[in-house]
Amino acid sequence: MRRNFFGFALLLLFSISAFSQITAIKAGKIVDPESGTVSSNQTIMVENGKIASIGSDIAVPANATVIDLTSSVVLPGLFDMHTHLCMDVQAARDAGRYYYTTLNDPDSFRAIQGVVNARTMLESGFTSARDVGNEGNYACVSVRRAIQRGMIPGPTFQTAGRIIAPYGGQFHLQQDKQNLAEPEYFFADTRDEMVKAIRQNAHYGATVIKIVVDDQRYIYSAEDIKFMIDEAARAGLKLAAHCWTRAGAHNAAVAGVASIEHGFDMTDEDLAIAKKNGVVLVGTDYLALDDSPTAHTQWVDRLRRASRLGVTMAYGTDATDEKAGQTRGTETMRGIDPWVEAGIAPKDILKAMTINAARLMGVEKERGALRKGMAADIIAVPENPLENVNTLKKVSFVMKNGAVIRK
Ligand SMILES: [Zn+2]
After folding, report:
1. Angle at Cα 192 formed by Cα 186 and Cα 198, nearest 5°?
2. CA 263–ligand 1 middle distance (angstroms)
3. From the CA of 242, how far away is ligand 1's center (Å)?
4. How far is the CA of 135 from the centre of ligand 1 (A)?
5. How close is the Cα of 84 to the center of ligand 1, in Å?
């Protein structure tokens, strides 16, 4: 067993009572990522999973459960906009190719991986996430439903179902084994196939649509992508576009997708088009950590350029590799390292990890900030992250929907 399931002092309180009682959180400091400001000596009243009131002059009723975080800094729960909960890539087995992972692991096992990864992400402070596919035959939709029903702990998250891609998906198939990439991917080359792929995903529980624009020599055009944005919108879904090449990212930026994933090769011109069209960059900058020095430098530079040009960015990691002594949660938090290296201000990193991501998910009225009426998704860290963003790696308290997950 490579993972230490019992390494944390955890309080798992998933009973109904957690939602019906009144909780008062005494916060030493509260950080508001939207404004980049700190307020001191605040009290947050939590009732029915939501923030009932927040401020410095709140009377705490006698029947309230008091949580003392007076020596901590409190902030909204964090978001990861690019994860694959139902896929753990083992370098030793797969030589870094998740093609083998997806073939070796049955969907039933991948659902269990999703259960474990969802829990460790939540324990590390990620109360919301977006799963962008690679979940076999909707394994992650089942994980999401189990979390929604309170059966297991995990972030509030959206799931993409089967990734939609030109023939072959992200794999290089052999002609005598043509079926190996489905159902991992949904091959859609014609307009009819695109409609069918989006509708099937929506039908089987996807809450976001993920396309791979450019992992084959034939890539989706801006018109193809626009067509899929409109079809997804008819089902109330946003479109996330994997773009690895300059041409692919250009097409997605012109089409105006909700988010460009990766986009490592984007020019300043294409970053400007993305900004003009309201496209959010989910840069998966985490990947720079373990890649070649050349890629590392280029990808951190892209992050710096996007920030300088004012492109809206949401934090998204793509952390899938199993690492000894680490969990999906700790690896996901390690994704802040390239942001620090790029010189991004902590307040902008926090915005990317909260409010920008909440807007991308379309949940900004419910999550991503600590305000009256919003979900009680609350974390605490030892220091002020606006001064030392690495303090996020030491999350000491996690509450989701008013239930204490970690204390
Ligand atoms: Zn990914």
Report:
1. 45
2. 12
3. 8
4. 11
5. 7
Report the distance separating Cα 92 and Cα 161, nearest Å. 27
Cα–ligand 1 centroid distance for 74 (angstroms): 30
CA–CA gap between residue 402 and residue 405 (Å, rounded): 9
Express each pLDDT in 273-288 by its tens digit: 999 999 999 999 999 9
What residues have a C-beta under 5 A from ligand 1, the ion? 318
- Residue with more model confidence, 94 or 50: 50
Instruction: Please determine, for residue 16, whether its predicted confidence score (pLDDT) is greater than 70.
Output: no
For residue 196, what are the β-bridge partners? none
Please give the distance, rounded to the nearest whole angstrom, from the Cα atom of residue 383 to the centre of ligand 1.
31
Distance (Å) from CA 95 to ligand 1 centroid: 17
pLDDT value for 21: 87
Tell whether the model's pLDDT for residue 11 goes beyond 60.
Answer: no
Beta bridge partner(s), residue 42 = 27
Q: How far is the CA of 285 from the centre of ligand 1 (A)?
A: 11
The answer to whether residue 330 scores a pLDDT higher than 90 is: yes
Separation CA 203–CA 209 (nearest Å): 12
Beta carbons within 8 Å of 175's beta carbon, 6+ residues apart: none
Q: Read off the pLDDT of residues 30-64 as tens digits, 9 standing for 90 and up.
A: 999 999 999 999 999 999 999 999 999 999 999 99
- Specify the CATH number for 78-361; select among 3.40.50.1000, 3.20.20.140, 3.40.50.450, 3.90.980.10: 3.20.20.140
Q: Where are the domains of the chain?
A: 17-77+368-406, 78-361
Rounded distance from Cα 115 to ligand 1 centre (Å): 18
CATH superfamily, domain 17-77+368-406, is Urease, subunit C, domain 1 (2.30.40.10)
Q: Kindly tell me the burial class for residue 319, based on how many C-beta atoms sit within 10 Å of its own C-beta (0-12, 13-18, 19 or more).
A: buried
Distance, CA 87 to ligand 1 centroid (Å)? Answer: 10
